[in-house]
Amino acid sequence: xxxxxxxxLSSTVEEPGEEGGSVRHLRRDAEMNRERVLASARELFxxxxxxxxxxxxxxxxxxxxxxxxxxxxxxxxxxxxxxxQRVQAIVDLxxxxxxxxxxxxxxxxxxxxxxxMEASDRGLRELVLSNDYGGERLQALKDQVEAPASxxxxxxxxxxxxxxxxxxxxxxxxxxxxxxxxxxCSQLVPGMWRRYFTYVLDGLRPSRTSxxxxxxxxxxxxxxxxxxxxxxxxxxxxx
Amino acid sequence: xxxxxxxxLSSTVEEPGEEGGSVRHLRRDAEMNRERVLASARELFxxxxxxxxxxxxxxxxxxxxxxxxxxxxxxxxxxxxxxxQRVQAIVDLxxxxxxxxxxxxxxxxxxxxxxxMEASDRGLRELVLSNDYGGERLQALKDQVEAPASxxxxxxxxxxxxxxxxxxxxxxxxxxxxxxxxxxCSQLVPGMWRRYFTYVLDGLRPSRTSxxxxxxxxxxxxxxxxxxxxxxxxxxxxx
DNA sequence: TCTATGTGGAGAACTTATCTCCGCTTTATA
DNA sequence: TATAAAGCGGAGATAAGTTCTCCACATAGA
Lengths: 239, 239
Hints:
The structure is a homodimer. The first copy, chain A, has eleven helices and two strands, in the order E-E-H-H-H-H-H-H-H-H-H-H-H. By secondary structure, chain A is mainly α. The first copy, chain A, has two domains: about 10-75, Homeodomain-like (Arc Repressor Mutant, subunit A, Orthogonal Bundle); about 75-230, Tetracycline Repressor, domain 2. A two-stranded antiparallel ribbon of chain A has the order 1-2. Chain A is globular. Chains A and B meet through helix 9, helix 10 and helix 11 of A and helix 9, helix 10 and helix 11 of B. Chain B binds a DNA duplex (30 and 30 nucleotides) through helix 1, helix 2 and helix 3. Chains A, B: This is Transcriptional regulator, TetR family. Chains A, B: Keywords: DNA-binding, Transcription, Transcription regulation. Chains A, B: InterPro entries: DNA-bd_HTH_TetR-type_CS, Homeodomain-like_sf, HTH-type_TetR-like_transc_reg, HTH_TetR, Tet_transcr_reg_TetR-rel_C_sf, TetR_SbtR-like_C.
């Protein structure tokens, strides 16, 4: 359901003037604040997306903005530090899916986990689907998904599990679509993307004799109106 | 493919002080400018969404901002004037779809045309999917879609054309999903939503023996990267 | 105790919206 | 053609929001 990535970022400071490799540990209270900032950023970026301000992140972490900027030279730097491991996890997922013997199961494994990651983390979704954020290092990582993803698709098509007209690039769009679906409903029913994932997946088979069992109930009209009310409304107050 | 709604908005000015019904025509040049503003707003809202500024609309229309504000008291008023007829068109579409004898064809007719409208008009999509814009009158109009839409779904389910687990509220989410898909690709290949609509629709049948023929080719990897590059990037310059 | 290290958060600097105001221009009419 | 009423453009007032800096004060740790 949810995924956990242990982020282990350097808590040491490079001494710029001295000869190579010399590092110095942060003071204990400083180190704790740094971790609080990272946890806060992780949580708020995941919930509200990358437009979350560093003021909000600082406040949510219980520290001042200055403390954030002392540890991360800019917002961009914080984003990069935070998401590198998450993007790497996507690369790993693609390669790992290729090892599953049954090609349909491999395809589903990849797609389901990819969407699960992106649905539970709005910041990650924005990072993956756009080129606005993320420097060269993240871009290079993103490019590493292409080859295994193509092979996952070709393999499943070759075996007759996946409809012939499907292309690897469709994965990106389907990911975006289900991200939207989840963003729309998740405040009321977390994980609603699985409902629509079932529909889409049933549409990707060459043929089928029945419907897959659907995950999650549908929203009522009242709930839907509530979802509309909060759709894309700017995030108000992080506790 | 594309749809046309003739917008016929009052080009007269109410004389506030005088006894009821007295109206006065705009000067010819003023009338022309007013229409230019409406056309410009229609075009830019459709292409870039409701966050388009009135400065941009004015510039694109070849008039000053002052001229826009002289005719429409606020941005909200312009949006309301512009979209009332479009929302009414959705209500009409729902009722008209119920008149189609075959309930599956009625369902597809409704969904396809609804998504077509919303895909070709980002502003309309934002208006329909959120409650941020649009006053009471538009809200009341939107509510009129609910009853016929529910009947469209129930009818198709009753006849065994549509899978049992589908609900009327799913229409809203599917609309949002395909809107996203189109937003993602439309700069490169307009109408790409039809490709993903085929996948989704094939997933909504209780069962099927083959795949529907797919509309539109997939994007190449290069095109997809280009799409990522422009995804959600702020609109730059309206010619 | 003492100092290098760290802190908070006001506010500088910048951006981006909406909407107003006023000197000048144009239309319509007598 | 002369005149007044209507209309025009767009600079800029106003407000909100965001990134990032700075410095008087606090604290860990030798």
